[in-house]
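Objective 1b. Sequence-to-structure analysis of Bcr/CflA family efflux transporter.
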Amino acid sequence: MTHKNKQTTVRLALLLGLFSTLGPFTIDMYLPAFPQIVERFGTTASLVQLSLTTCLLGLGVGQLVMGSLSDVYGRRKPLLISMAIYVVAAVACAISPNIWLLILSRLVQGFVASAGIVISRAIARDMFSGHELTKFFSLLLLVGNLGPLVAPVTGSGVLALTSWVGVFIALALLGMYLLAMTKWSLQETLPVERRSPSNFTQQLRNYGSLLRDRSFTGYMLAQGIMIAGVFAYVSGTPFIYQNIYGVSPTVFALLFGSNGISLIIGSQLVGRMAHRVSEQTFLLFGLWLAGAASIAVLLVAMFHGPLYALVIPLVFFVAAIGITSTAAFPLAMESQGHMAGSAAALMGVIPFLLGAVVSPLVGIAGESTAVPLGVIILTTSAAAMLSYFLLVKRSSIKNAGSFEVRKQ
């Protein structure tokens, strides 16, 4: 790759990474304000967590819709409309008079924020394949993963100056900036001749075809179930760190941000070593690392260990997510260039749908124990590994056996 091409690739990764950060900022930036929102509306922690659940549902379902629309109408038009609606939804959150309108507005906000996530990944597949896709996706994640690192710190900074309302005003300003970037800086990457027909039945057939592909489904589930465990961590740690261990919102943001660093390290390790170590090897390593870390978290929670004993395995658990996500995406997308938007949508929807299910479960035993978090992330790690072995590995063995029969 020439120096000029490398600069162009980095600029594209920065631009698409900005759209990828919209999801993490939408999820993470208001986390330090959870206790404040509980007090403002005189409600419970579970209802405030429900606002996160509806946002995750919107992010999940929205990706299915936006992925299909981007295959039909191209990448830019759905992004433009979504960013405009995002700004309106963020303002609606800020002026909500009660918890229920906040919950509804978060659903809409998550739905349109999904466009930034799924379409940025579809654009990546439009332009790259093979190891080059792995390397570019790791660059994309390098920028996108700054979201979980910066968002809670930014949220804490806003809270130091104003109330939780200011957080959503800041998100509205971010949406306005991304709307301008879409209008003036993003080029269309899906030519008209490569677009899918504007046919709802055909879109359903595309999703059905993808789900019948055992290898694709295995990679999708392995990645998606693992990320669902992170959403349990996202939902539970504001109360675990601040209520159980008594840390301040600023310290919480720093602890939360440390996992953003581990996420970046995990993803960059795969990107830098893509030509030396296979994506399959990295994926399996990440799955085993997540399993070991989640066991450690559960043990610390059960025996009421100190804060550092909880933080350390969570750092390794989130690093494992960076490894598995970066490895699984190019493996799943490699043969899906003809419907990259739909494939990227399915890869994105599973984490958010499962995350919406597990997030409220973290608080099921109250705000004085971290045991549910340990149980949930251990369960997700085990389920992700089972998905890989039962679908991907078994499919590979079956295909190898079929090849031998044909050869004979």
